[in-house]
Design brief:
This protein is of the alpha+beta class. Helices cover 28% and strands 29% of the residues. The longest helix has 25 residues. It starts with 14 loop residues before the first helix and ends in a 5-residue tail after the last helix.
């Protein structure tokens, strides 16, 4: 999280205010212990599935600092894991539990790969205006827990339970690489991204769920058509084209881009790709990002 400290640039207070400052200092000093005590109460989150129970403890130390961040896991009543987060770029005291910033909580236990052994997911927030939900996944190896880290950036994720026993759970997210790529953040749209976690490896299964892609594509096309004359719609258009590529409708999407170019509707913001450059940049990034494979 950002800590901003404002400066007054040498501005002097008037004599009336100056006389009040000592008294204000006394009042603030008297209030600080109570405020510190309120901010320093430890909190605990717990989640369980099968024989596995995960407990995350932490304390809000104020000023964007979090202390005592500890994840403990028990299997069949025996403690087998006890550690703080081991995430590069999310170090204490500025690595925060996700619960204060999200209504889904910070710790989850679920059988992600359908093998009967639950995994543990601990969600953290590394701070910043447009980032970063980072998840540490703990997978049981038979001798202990191996950790795997996934940065979901702005998009975050929701956990979709398996469709049937023995099938994997799906982590439903969005492709945050589209942020700022073709428009401002407020005008950017993210294509859906569906992931599974199978014995330590992540798999992108978005193409296997065309119903999700079709629904998102329909929303993107409607949004673009409503804004296409305003010059702030190219972020939405990029997400629609990405959906169409994954659905196997690349020729249709490319033809639509060409028609919009001829109609003068790809002018956009000069700070981002536009006109012919918009099309070539979009197609190149979709190729690099795996949308054409």
């Amino acid at each position: 999280m950002e800590n901003r400290r404002g400066r007054r640039g040498g501005r002097r207070y008037g004599p009336r205010v100056s006389r009040l400052l000592p008294a204000l200092a006394v009042v603030i000093a008297a209030l600080l212990p109570a405020a510190a005590q309120a901010a320093g109460e430890p909190k605990t989150e717990t989640a369980s599935a099968g024989a596995v129970t995960a407990t995350l403890t932490y304390t809000d130390a104020g000023d964007g600092r979090w202390t005592g961040l500890k994840l403990r896991v028990t299997r069949a009543g025996a403690q087998v894991y006890d550690s703080g987060p081991t995430i590069d770029g999310c170090e204490q005291p500025y690595c925060a539990p996700m619960a204060p910033f999200d209504d889904q909580g910070s710790v989850h236990v679920a059988d992600l790969d359908g093998d009967g052994e639950p995994e543990v997911l601990a969600d953290f927030y590394s701070g910043g205006a447009h980032c970063c939900e980072i998840t540490e996944v703990l997978r049981w190896t038979g001798a202990g827990y191996a950790t795997n880290v996934r940065d979901f950036a702005d998009a975050g994720y929701t956990l979709q339970p398996p469709a049937a026993p023995g099938q994997p759970a799906i982590l439903v997210s969005s492709d945050a690489r589209f942020a700022y790529a073709f428009a401002t953040f407020a005008d950017s749209a993210f294509p859906p991204r569906l992931l599974t976690f199978d014995h330590g490896r992540w798999h992108d299964v978005t193409r296997e769920h065309p119903e999700t892609l079709r629904a998102h594509a329909a929303r993107m096309r409607k949004g673009y058509m409503q804004r296409r004359r305003g010059g702030r719609a190219l972020g939405i258009l990029a997400a629609w084209v990405a959906d169409e590529y994954l659905l196997g409708r690349r020729a249709t999407a490319d033809a639509f881009l060409a028609a919009e170019l001829r109609a003068g509707r790809l002018n956009g913001n000069p700070l981002w790709p536009r006109r012919k450059t918009y099309i070539s940049t979009l197609q190149r990034r979709l190729r690099v990002w795996g949308y054409t494979g």
